[in-house]
Fold this sequence. Notes:
The chain has 308 residues and is of the alpha+beta class. It has helices spanning 2-24, 30-41, 46-54, 58-62, 68-105, 108-117, 152-158, 186-194, 205-208, 227-280, and strands at residues 122-124, 127-129, 147-150, 162-164, 180-182, 210-215, 220-225, 284-291, 299-307.
Amino acid sequence: xxxxxxxxxxxxxIFRLMLIVVLLNPLSGQDTTLNIVEKDTTFYxxxxxxxxxxxxxxGQVYNKxxxxxxxxxFGTEILTLASVFYANKRADEIRMNYQEFADExxxxxxxxxxxxxxPTVIENNGMYFTDNKLKAMRSYIGTxxxxxxxxxxxxxxxxxxxxxxxxxxxxxxxxxxxxxxMVKDRHYYENIGKYDQxxxxxxxxxxxxxxxxxxxxxxxxxxxxxxxxxxYLDERYEANQWLNFAKFSVSAMMFNHVVSGLEAVxxxxxxxxxxxxxxxxxxxxxxxxxxxxxNNLGIGGLALRLNF
Length: 308
């Protein structure tokens, strides 16, 4: 029982000391408050900056700014992050669609057949003439190439697993074999839509191919297409637009981090300047006694000094 009383007595003493400190703290005036704020703002100016660079709006929370400020930065973070995920998801969905479309409508067999029996003349306003500008569509050998994967007996026959499309003549008799497949990487799906050299692989090329003139500055470039190739290009363009939007969203997200950090530092500095300004304008009242040797008590009056 004694120990319990001693413990309670000690706790009560601590409580009374804490209460005295709390009650006396306001009497210390603005100086104590100034010291506390100065330690946070003057000696650690980078703290709200780093907090906002990590999570936008966190520096504003640290500065105890109005709730709309951290909400604005954090809301922008959520919006841009959602935009990045959504745009990438849409681009990936469209990519899968146009790749499936290409797998159904472009073939190496069709490409080889067209380069061997494709048109040697073109028609323009009822007149037929040859045009070397279209020679790219009549040759499987060009500035770009595809990669062919050999399997099974063909791999043993040619003693290699991969061939470039420049060697297409070597395997022409086996193009319908299950041991031949295309390496369908990013370059494959780009090449079959981008270059005239591969236009012969599209299933509608024998009946519906056409060309367009493209202004490239000093000259005009001939672009050979088919309706299915154009559909393929349209889907690729849409996918790329979504990817560009995702990149823009990432840039906006980083910009939001930087702006939040700079605003946190700026607000922190303004708060410090405001406190210093208030501190410099505080009113001091000083009352003292004037000495008068002719007075028996030595008091000649009161001295009043007011600083503001």
